[in-house]
Design brief:
Helix content: 25-40%
Shape: globular
Bound molecules: coenzyme A
CATH architecture of the largest domain: Alpha-Beta Complex
Radius of gyration: 18 Å
Largest sheet: 3 strands, antiparallel
CATH topology of the largest domain: Ribosomal Protein L22, Chain A
Number of strands: 11
Number of helices: 7
CATH class of the largest domain: Alpha Beta
Oligomer: single chain
Length: 229
Amino acid sequence: MASHLVVRACPPFGVRGAVSGLEHDSLALLDGAELERARAMTPRTRQNFLAGRLAQRRFAAGLLGVQASDLTAWYSCPRCGTGADISHGKPAYLLRGEAVPLLLSLSRAAGWTLLAGLVDPDPGQRLGIDVEDPARADFDGFDDVVLTAAEQLHLAGLGGISLLRGRARLWARKEAWLKMLGTGLQTAPDTLDVLGTNVDGHAGLRDLTPAETGLPADLVAAIAVAVLP
Ligand SMILES: CC(C)(COP(=O)(O)OP(=O)(O)OC[C@H]1O[C@@H](n2cnc3c(N)ncnc32)[C@H](O)[C@@H]1OP(=O)(O)O)[C@@H](O)C(=O)NCCC(=O)NCCS
């Protein structure tokens, strides 16, 4: 069967279509390592984290046509390894102990959760998604930490919201690509050039429009899908 990609945005609390409340019944769907990680968070962060994890589990279950309660979170961290006791890194689930034919990626910004699922992936295929709020790119030093010299030149002359959107656009591409690789920010973002797409061998990296994601137009998003050797 050919692989197919599904992207879904989940709104913040209080907005129509938001993840249903974080009541006991819903939280019981999550696994021990996920709940343990949540316990160490501040209330607001915890709420966003749990909502995203619930949305991701229900999304995965819907794509697979199974019960969310039959899935076990099976995260992979390049440093810590893979398994039920890993609560961070690249997301995946087991179905009753077996790997499932589904790639997943998740990102949160401004209370929104953006999910991508690739059902029946081809061998070696990888997936990464990212959403950014341009308002979060408004700090001194952003360009030096995040952008290559060519990217800094590309944004030179921009100001105000155009600059912030330009920064956030490049940042979203970088994070989508680095999530796809599975390394995250262990790779320094200022070493990765994502000007345009399909540059530097980044075939499969592209921006997502609000029409494709369902996100509000003030947020920017990117997705990376590629076959890695
Ligand atoms: C991946 C990363 C760039 C995303 O950061 P962010 O902008 O703060 O967060 P986003 O909301 O966009 O994405 C968070 C999601 O990215 C995913 N993610 C985290 N690390 C990932 C990785 N190595 N590969 C793929 N996806 C990853 C998870 O689904 C995470 O969701 P969670 O909070 O429910 O666990 C950042 O978390 C990172 O670099 N992590 C790796 C750092 C690392 O390896 N540290 C060593 C830990 S021992």
